[in-house]
Amino acid sequence: MATEEPPGASTGAPNAGSYDGLTFVSHMIAGSVAGTIEHTAMHPVDTIKTRMQALHPPGHSGSMIARSSLREVLRTVVQKDGVAGLYRGVGAVAAGAGPAHALHFAIYEWAKESLGGHREGLHPVETAAAGCAATVVNDALMTPVDSVKQRCQVCVCVCVYWRGSG
């Protein structure tokens, strides 16, 4: 019983640049859409986490703010800023996540192919190296975006806290 290879898998056929039925551009589009949806959907959770981290500096465990629960921080954000407060900074993330994840998916597949990770059998070293390369590019693009996002998420929160503490 013979197994079938994907079109162009072992030849120089025109489909040689595709994997799992997707071309390089298709991987970029899939990555872009997936990354943007994931970052947008998780943004409210990230906002709460970021505010809790900003208001819980190390060594200040005795303050009332340091004892705030997730529920208390959520309630405070919604009371002061409305539901829109949970999405402060989402524009920066949506603008940056698309290109960053598009490149992540595309570079991962390109690097994996270049390193021989698509050959028959398991290739953990090649796959890991491809993942590392893709993550370096993704992080290089997302780190500045995260900085803008975090400043948007905590600006009002931290400013109100510091003004209130005199």
UniProtKB/TrEMBL annotation:
It is found in: Mitochondrion membrane. Solcar repeats lie at residues 22-114. GO terms for biological process: iron import into the mitochondrion. It is a multi-pass membrane protein. It comes from the Eukaryota. SUPFAM superfamilies: Mitochondrial carrier. Pfam families: Mito_carr. GO terms for molecular function: ferrous iron transmembrane transporter activity. Keywords: Membrane, Mitochondrion, Transmembrane, Transmembrane helix, Transport. The keyword Transmembrane applies. GO terms for cellular component: mitochondrial membrane. Belongs to the mitochondrial carrier (TC 2.A.29) family. This is Uncharacterized protein. It comes from Volvox africanus. The lineage of its organism: Eukaryota, Viridiplantae, Chlorophyta, core chlorophytes, Chlorophyceae.
